[in-house]
Write a structure and sequence with these properties.
The protein is α+β, with helices and mostly antiparallel strands. Helix content is 41%, strand content 13%. It has two domains: 151 residues, 2-Layer Sandwich (Heat Shock Protein 90), CATH 3.30.565.60; 88 residues, Winged helix-like DNA-binding domain superfamily/Winged helix DNA-binding domain (Arc Repressor Mutant, subunit A, Orthogonal Bundle), CATH 1.10.10. The protein has a four-stranded antiparallel sheet. It has a two-stranded antiparallel sheet with strand order 1-2. The longest helix has 14 residues.
Length: 245
């Protein structure tokens, strides 16, 4: 519960922005948010509600220049599956993983009730003129990933602001080289370090790869499985913008 409150408060106070757009010939202006708070809150509550507390994996909230991703484990409860989520069909759940958690969320006014989270999310995004949320899982329903895309009128601004802030960071030659190499192709950590003329040691990963990953300049190709044997790294939109500067 505290994690939910901390994440939602941080996003509300530091990430969410409003823009007022005047319309010619009309007294009332249009108001848009980069992310409607109701949708973010419901997505976080949904992750808390459906997470298995028998697993040690935490809920992951990643904020990118163009989207917010909320990842929890495992995936949805049957009959909800990957196909139903992908087809954006109406979801009718007859079973719930954490009924008592759901009751607490409702009592704290953090969610409306069972089975209302996804419809509320969709309505909030639609009212704001934002793309509908993307809900994903795999065939075995091992994870639940919710992606909220930034409102179209904020696209570009988010990247520009972050570039302006980060380009003042010290981009040393090592950072630049990492971005240059990954801008050409996706590579595993060992392949990347070899191209930098380094051995595949933990100290080199922490010095050259981890800082770019933490800043959002590069990303994993398999983010839900950091230790996957198929894991590779690629440059993000923000990383390319930083490199161009």
């Amino acid at each position: 519960m505290l994690a939910h409150e901390h994440s939602s408060s941080y996003i509300r106070n530091n990430i969410i922005e409003e823009r007022v757009q005047k319309v010619s010939g009309r007294a009332e202006a249009d108001r848009y948010f980069n992310y409607p708070y109701d949708a973010v809150e419901e997505a976080l509550a949904n992750a808390v509600y459906h997470k298995s507390y028998e697993l040690g994996k935490p809920i992951e909230v990643q904020i990118w220049p163009d989207k917010i991703e909320i990842l929890s484990f495992p995936g949805p409860v049957p009959p909800v599956n990957a196909q139903i989520l992908a087809e954006n069909r109406r979801i009718v759940a007859r079973d719930y993983r954490n009924r008592r958690v759901g009751d607490f969320l409702k009592e704290l006014h953090l969610t409306e009730g069972r089975g209302t989270g996804i419809p509320t999310m969709r309505r909030a995004m639609e009212r704001n003129g934002s793309p509908l949320p993307i809900l994903e899982t795999d065939e075995q329903c091992t994870y639940f990933l919710t992606t909220l895309a930034v409102h179209p009128i904020f696209e570009g601004d988010q990247v520009s602001n972050q570039v302006s802030n980060q380009v003042n960071d010290e981009i040393n030659e090592a950072n630049k080289r990492v971005l240059e190499v990954l801008s050409k192709e996706e590579l595993s950590s060992s392949e990347l370090l070899r191209q930098l003329g380094l051995t595949a040691q933990t100290k080199n990963y922490k010095k050259y790869i981890a800082p770019a990953l933490d800043r959002g300049w590069i990303e994993m190709t398999v983010p839900d499985k950091p230790r996957s044997r198929n894991q590779k790294y690629r440059v993000t939109e923000l990383g390319r913008a930083v490199l161009d500067r």
